[in-house]
Structures are given as structure tokens and as C-alpha cells.
Specification:
Rossmann fold, alpha/beta, N-utilizing Substance Protein B Homolog, Chain A, 12 strands, 3 domains, 4-stranded antiparallel sheet, 16 helices, globular
Length: 425
């Protein structure tokens, strides 16, 4: 009883930070891994995942709008409603223990209100579940429906699921042998037809349960993201830039695919570069140099042209909403136009640093066309020395580059591969 109540207090605080203070959802919102934090994470992610649906259920049931200082009570009701509608938590626990959180946050006056609304929701549960709702912000619903008239229902459904956990097994390790090791620990997994180092687990586990994780056996990375390494295809002696590299998943993949290549990992966020260095150390990469710098500028560059450049561009993250449900609450329409401008600036700047004949791979974890095929189309039209290279991977579709929509195996992701034409002799 006490543990569950503590979990609900932790979850309530985390949801408030995201929904009211616009914090991003991260591990720092939770205490170290315990049974309490595990349940708290489940409540937090679920409540944020279905926030827009739950909000539309709750708002008409409030006789008057709660004032700003009491919006935490609105969040508490959302958390309770999530338990009633979307989980197998008992009705008694979902209602009573959620009501008790009001006392813990010193708002005893709200206990009756919370109890009444949650009991009403419980009575109407079947009707609520039978009423369709995409549980996305209205601006994003309209945009996705417009851009994907044949696929929007599937996109919304996938976005509201829990994401699969996939691993990138180190290339020095036989993937079948590692799969067998996982199975010895009760962890079932599936291989991938397009990413030779990928294993997707049947059920997510704590990384500490992964064989030899601390010794660099694997990296947690979606299968879609693993294609970046294949497209760059690093070779001995090549100088390769990984721009906007944090937290280092693609950086370390490039490094381990070809230890005799030279990788420059660039990011403008000093705190996130700590994570990059941690991952490089765990995976024992020896051919990576990490640099703090802005990919829209050149003050970090030593004038050496790159053989290949990976632009892991900042984006709206609309292809990975199931991993980051906070995106639904934090992203606004104005963010899209700003991000598109930044992407274009990065492409323009880094193209100057690429050797003639070199390859640039552009990647985002978005499904919005302005960030992807429209962005690359504009770039090609502005840069006559650029040409689009065919991506020969049975993954995704698209007229320019390849767009993968989220599904049970892959995150939503976009890749375009550009070649810089050699100068005429």
C-alpha cells in the first residue's frame, strides 16, 4: 500500500513537470531503479500517452475550470482515469490510492472532487473505450491526416503503444550466440532481415539483465536507427563526421563497424556530450574524437574535408512518440517551422565541409514531410552539385529518400543519401 502510494506521488510529480512546466520526460524525473520507480514510470508514460483522450473525458465532468494553482489536481485526476481506463489496476486502488495523493500534496479539499469524478469515469468506462479518440494534439492530428490520408489511423495506433526494445549487438559477437545467451536468461528475441546486428526483444528488460552489457556487448537502439551505419558504410582511413551526435548511438555504431576509420562526433549540448563519452567508453571505441560545436557554424572545423557526413538532424520526433509521449504535450506548431530552418542551416553549412564525391546521409526520427522529403527536395534544387542516391534497403518508401512509418518493428524514421558531385575536369 505504501509503495503504491509513493509510486503515485512520484508519477504525479513527473506528469506535472511535463504537462505544466514543459520538462522533457527523462530518467532524472524518477528515483533510482526500484519497484516504486518502475510503477511510477508506467503511470507517467501511460498518463502522458493518453493525456489528450483523458483530458477530453475529464474536462466536461468538472463543474468549473480549476485555477492555475490547482492544475496539479487536474493532473491527478488524469492519472487516476488512466488507471481506470487503460490498466488492470483494481478499481479500488485506482480510485482510493489516487485520492490519497491529494492529502500527500496537502490538498485535502480536493479529495471529494477527485473521488466523484473517478467514480463517474469508472461507471462510464465501456462507453469511453468505445468512443474513438486518437489522443494526439489537434494540430498534429490534422497534419498527419493531411500528409498520410491512407495511413493516419495506423500511425496514431502505433504512437499510442509501448515501443519495442531493440539491441544493436557488437559486430565482434555472433548474433545467434548472443540470442542464445539472452534466452538462457529468459529473454526471447527476434533477428532483423535488414539490420544484421539487431535483436528485438519480446519484452523490455532492465539493461543490467543483458549479458555483458557493462563490457560493451550491445547498445539499446531501434532497428530503424541502426540503418545509419549501413548507409554511411565507413571504410578504412575515411574521415567521417557525425553531426548532432548525442547520445552517441550512431557514433559508436560507425566506430565499431570500422575501427580504422576516423570519426568526429559533434554536438552543441555539453551535458549530452557526457552521455556520448560514457557510451564510447563502455563500447571501447578508440577511433572517435568528441567535439563541442554548433553544426550551423564552422568555428569548430579545422578545414579538413570529410569523406562522409551523417546529419542526425534535430527534428520534432514525431516518429518516436511512442518512446517519448511527452512530445505530444511539448511540441507546438511553431516549433516545426523553427526546426525546419535549423535543419536547412545545418545542411547548407556542412555541405561545404564534404569532399567532392563524398556522401552525406540525412536522418530524422520524424514523419513530417517538411522535415524530410520537402527539406531534401529544396536542398537539391538549391545545390546543383548534389544528387540523390538510391537507398537500397527493403525499408520505408518515398519519392525522395525513404520514409518509414512507425510499426511493430520499426520506429518512424527518414533517411536521404546525397552525393556531392565531383568537379568537372
Amino acid at each position: 500500500m505504501l509503495n503504491n502510494n509513493n509510486s503515485r506521488v512520484i508519477a504525479h510529480n513527473a506528469i506535472c513537470l511535463v504537462a505544466l512546466e514543459k520538462y522533457t520526460l527523462s530518467e532524472s524525473l524518477f528515483p533510482s531503479e526500484t519497484s516504486e520507480s518502475s510503477f511510477a514510470k508506467s503511470l507517467t508514460y501511460g498518463s502522458l500517452r493518453f493525456y489528450h483522450h483523458l483530458n477530453d473525458v475529464i474536462t466536461p465532468r468538472l463543474k468549473k475550470t480549476l485555477d492555475k494553482k490547482n492544475l496539479d489536481i487536474h493532473i491527478l485526476i488524469i492519472m487516476g482515469a488512466y488507471q481506470l481506463i487503460y490498466t488492470d489496476v483494481s478499481t479500488h486502488a485506482a480510485i482510493n490510492e489516487t485520492v490519497e495523493v491529494a492529502e500527500k500534496i496537502k490538498k485535502q479539499w480536493a479529495k471529494g472532487l477527485i473521488n466523484a469524478i473517478l467514480r463517474g469515469i469508472d461507471r462510464d468506462r465501456d462507453d469511453i473505450l468505445n468512443t474513438p479518440h486518437y489522443s494526439h494534439p489537434s494540430w498534429l492530428v490534422k497534419k498527419i491526416m493531411k500528409e498520410y490520408p491512407d495511413n493516419f489511423h495506423k500511425i496514431f495506433t502505433e504512437n499510442n503503444k509501448q515501443a519495442p526494445m531493440s539491441l544493436r549487438v557488437h559486430p565482434s559477437i555472433n548474433i545467434k550466440s548472443y540470442q542464445d545467451k539472452l534466452l538462457e536468461g529468459g529473454i526471447e528475441s527476434k533477428t532483423s532481415k535488414i539490420a544484421p546486428q539487431s535483436l528485438t526483444l519480446n519484452k523490455a528488460v532492465n539493461v543490467e539483465k543483458l549479458p555483458d552489457f557493462r563490457d560493451g556487448s550491445c547498445y539499446v537502439q531501434d532497428t530503424s536507427a541502426q540503418l545509419a551505419g549501413q548507409l554511411i558504410a565507413p571504410k578504412n582511413g575515411e574521415l567521417i563526421l557525425d553531426a548532432c551526435c548525442a547520445p552517441g548511438g550512431k557514433t559508436t555504431h560507425l566506430a565499431e563497424l570500422c575501427p580504422n576509420s576516423e570519426i568526429l562526433a559533434l554536438d552543441a549540448d555539453e551535458k549530452r556530450l557526457i552521455k556520448v563519452n560514457d557510451n564510447i567508453k563502455r563500447l571501447k571505441n578508440k577511433n572517435v574524437k568528441v567535439i563541442l560545436g554548433d553544426a550551423t557554424k564552422g568555428d569548430w572545423w579545422n578545414q579538413r574535408l570529410f569523406d562522409k557526413i551523417l546529419v542526425d538532424a534535430p527534428c520534432t520526433g514525431t516518429g518516436v512518440i511512442r518512446r517519448h509521449p511527452d512530445i505530444k504535450l511539448i511540441r507546438k506548431p511553431r516549433d516545426l517551422s523553427h526546426i525546419v530552418e535549423v535543419q536547412a542551416s545545418i545542411l547548407k553549412n556542412l555541405w561545404l565541409m564534404l569532399k567532392p564525391g563524398g556522401i552525406l546521409v540525412y536522418a530524422t526520427c520524424s514523419i513530417l514531410k517538411d522535415e524530410n522529403e520537402n527539406q531534401i527536395s529544396k536542398f537539391i534544387n538549391l545545390n546543383m552539385d548534389s544528387s540523390i542516391e538510391e537507398i537500397r534497403v527493403p525499408w520505408g518508401k518515398g519519392p525522395i529518400g525513404k520514409q518509414q512509418l512507425p510499426n511493430d518493428i520499426f520506429d518512424g524514421f527518414y533517411y536521404a543519401q546525397l552525393r556531392k558531385k565531383s568537379k568537372s575536369k
